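To close the section, here is one more complete example, presented without commentary so you can practise reading it yourself. The ligand is XIL.
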Amino acid sequence: TQKLNTVAKSAGKTYFGTATDNSELSDSAYIAILNDGTMFGQITPANSMKWDATEPSRGSFTFTQGDQIANLAKSNGQLLRGHNCVWYNQLPSWVSSGGFNAATLSSIVTTHCSTVVGHYKGQTYAWDVINEPFNDDGTWRTDVFYNTLNTSYVPLALNAARTADPATKLYINDYNVEYAGAKSTALQNLVKSLKSAGTPLDGVGLQYHMISGSMPGGLASNIQAFTSLGVEVAITELDIRMTLPPTAAKYAQQKTDYQTVISACKSVTGCIGITIWDWTDKYSWVPSTFSGQGAACPWDATYLKKPAFDGIVAGL
Ligand code: XIL
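Output:
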């Protein structure tokens, strides 16, 4: 049976990985597959390094859950992706509704990113320093960071992360930037302006939460548009959902769609790795987030490989 990380490395990629979450780690059948470093050469904590988990109240940091994932990566010989420093969501209310002035919020952002990235110094391949900064029309998301600091929070966070761990790769990560359009253009323009200002930035994460049967075209050229700006690209959160219940025909379509995404990454040298947003439908975030949708992962809820698994292999 093929192992995805092994196949990805043969195809010239740095890793094939998956998200995971602390609550899943007591499932021995789950952990047996997760721990196979030849299947998954990289893991991302789906929740436990987010702001609400790491700094639930100001200046009070908790790393127990994040450390569990970091230690798992270490014992399995897997790369670790830090996720994330600055995001409007899963943000504790002391930040989102804090009413801080610009100087105070700047210091809060710097402290948060320095402390969290610094805690994992030497342990991560990359960090999603900035998560989901744009609206779908390419305008800036008017969250507490933008409303208080305008765009200055982006270089602030990136510089803090670089100082805290000079070796980890610093990323901006977003969705609906997987294909050409206003949002992808806005992110490309941000990359250009950060690069020309000398702000540290190593990569762009394209999330790839997709809908089966509605795959946009031009995926490879969109990836290329980012890599030509001098950053690497990673597919950071791949899943491809369908309307429930699944059928053989829907699984066949999903296989094609997985292959389409993976082969787009394969075709661009600077697309360095792929992470699925958990590998089994048992723990996917999709059904609870998109009503009536699911079956988005390459393994089903009983840990059987779906046709999507073969689509991934075929794309590599
Ligand atoms: C999701 C997690 O998978 C869920 O468990 C949680 O309830 C909500 O967040 N984009 C991101 C991820 O960057 O952090 C999100 O993860 C999915 C969308």
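Once you have examined the tokens, check your reading against these statements. Residues 46-47, 131, 207, 237, 285 surround XIL (CB under 6 Å). The radius of gyration is 19 Å.
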